[in-house]
Amino acid sequence: MKNFEMALPNSVDEAVGLLPKTLSDDRARLLAGGQDLLTEMKEYLVEPDLVVNLKSIPDLDGVVWASDGSLEIGALTTLASLEKDASIAAAFPALVQAAASIASPQIRSAATVGGNLNQRPRCWYYRSEDYPCLKKGGTECFSYYGKNRYNAILGGGPSYIVHPSDLAPALVALGAEVQLISPRGERVLTLEEFFVLPSEGDVLRETRLAADEVLTRIRVPAPAAGQRSIYLKFKERDAYDFALAAVALVLQTDGDKLASCRLVLGAVAPVPWRCTRTERKLAGRPLGEELVALAAQDALADAEPLSENGYKVPLTQGLIAEAFEALTI
Amino acid sequence: MRVLQLQVNGDTLETAAPVHWTLLEVLRYRLGLVGSKQGCDKGDCGACTVLLDGKPVLSCLTLAANAVGHEVTTIEGLAPKPETTSEPALDPIQRAFDDCGALQCGFCQPGMMLSARALLNTNAHPTRKEIQQALSGNLCRCTGYTQIVQAVETAVARVSGKTEPDCAWVAELARDRAQIDSAPNEASPSSTTPGPGAPS
Lengths: 329, 200
Ligand SMILES: Cc1cc2nc3c(=O)[nH]c(=O)nc-3n(C[C@@H](O)[C@@H](O)[C@H](O)COP(=O)(O)OP(=O)(O)OC[C@H]3O[C@@H](n4cnc5c(N)ncnc54)[C@H](O)[C@@H]3O)c2cc1C
Ligand code: FES
Ligand code: FES
Description:
The complex is a heterodimer of chains A (329) and B (200). Chain A has a domain at 228-328: CO dehydrogenase flavoprotein, C-terminal domain (Enolase-like, domain 1). Chain A has 329 residues and is of the alpha+beta class. In chain A, strand 10 (245-254) and strand 11 form a beta hairpin. Chain A has 13 helices and twelve strands. A five-stranded mixed β-sheet of chain B has the order 2-1-5-3-4, with helices on one face. Chain B is elongated, with a radius of gyration of 21 Å. Chains A and B meet through helix 2 and helix 6 of A and strand 4 of B. One FE2/S2 (inorganic) cluster binds at residues 38-41, 43-48, 58, 60 of chain B.
């Protein structure tokens, strides 16, 4: 890893003042838990001259319940503390299940929520110094013709990465919003809008975060009456791993009907993949096997697998079915 | 270069290192604490696990500068400090790893034992599943996880005053010792029945 200067700002305003104005200027980087950034720096994927350490800013750590039942999560809150929080587990099971599914206990002690949402892709062409891939300013996404069993089956092109975050699908399904602060002030985006497809935005990035912006808080709206949620993640090994496919499902029932649901897929697309059309089709239908089958079929209807990742279609359909069954049957 | 004052194993240690050095590098190459191992150096193997304020972290993914102001425990500090110089004290986890043969090359062991210590500090009676989950970030390339999990179970059982469950190795050791103790004198087996290679 290249040597750098470390800044220890006392406030978010001070931190954003140290950041570059344009995305092409990558002389500075934000550091939270470092569990992703340090691995990138060790591989020379990023070589900042200045590391802006968010850990010195007070009040970005920890969770606060608002009187309306919504939850505010500071960006520096660790995954380990989320995972152990019984009141969050009661209100938002999917969030705690997602946090607990991430990496190893050691990584969860240090990893933060803000860092998890802003982590970079794991595609091995991106992670290897030897491949000047599209995500690093090159001209080609090597996974399209290359080794692509972990890549996208939905929303791909021109890059076929999958978004690696486990928290992201759970938080999108729970309708979370993110607070972003820059020298221009504060803005709030839904987490769903925060993530951008490579075809919609800058292919070098996964989010709408500006160069001089910090994600400071995540707000999860109060659970609706009778709301249930679940996060299911399928990994290649039982010990820690990234997902091959994951499903976040939040729903409410009305008697023996599905009132409404939010279905978001992880590890199958360059962003957490919200199945809005499927959600609309399912609303109001009677609960049961037919609904489960329709959900699984419709959510993957647009999948376009690459040469090696066709298995993700039935795998994800199986997880969707399991999620609906767990919450409704 | 930056001067760093670190709290390691109850001591305040001062050293200087480049800003980009990890805690692992400072421990090994500045402070001579080479018990923490540099396996993958990128978060995969857990061989560099140390405790930071009692919580397990990867020292290869922690900048040394970020450990300032926190209590670092490495494998060198796991055992309680000996009261007398002659009696090396051991943490019950260390004793159980030894008795259970939960090591071969030993490379994974410091990290394994510190992950286990972090678990037992917050959960004195973990289930087997909880032990497996707590150790899931520590890879072992030779012993196999069975003995390692058994060693943690053995440490838990001993601390809570139970003799069971004990690992197979401990039971075997105890049988051997009992046999030796009950023999009339230590030299008798070989003197009465010469082995195949014994001179005649
Ligand atoms: C072995 C291993 C296994 C892993 N497994 C998983 C897994 O199963 N699931 C998963 O989701 N992740 C996994 N990860 C990725 C893990 O690094 C993240 O989950 C972790 O949450 C990153 O958080 P951090 O605080 O350490 O981020 P950092 O490394 O500090 O930051 C990550 C990125 O986000 C930026 N950033 C950080 N905080 C902010 C902020 N507040 N505002 C704007 N930008 C910010 C940084 O500049 C950097 O680019 C794994 C990592 C490793 C090494
Ligand atoms: S050396 Fe730190 S995890 Fe492998
Ligand atoms: S004993 Fe050799 S790695 Fe575990």
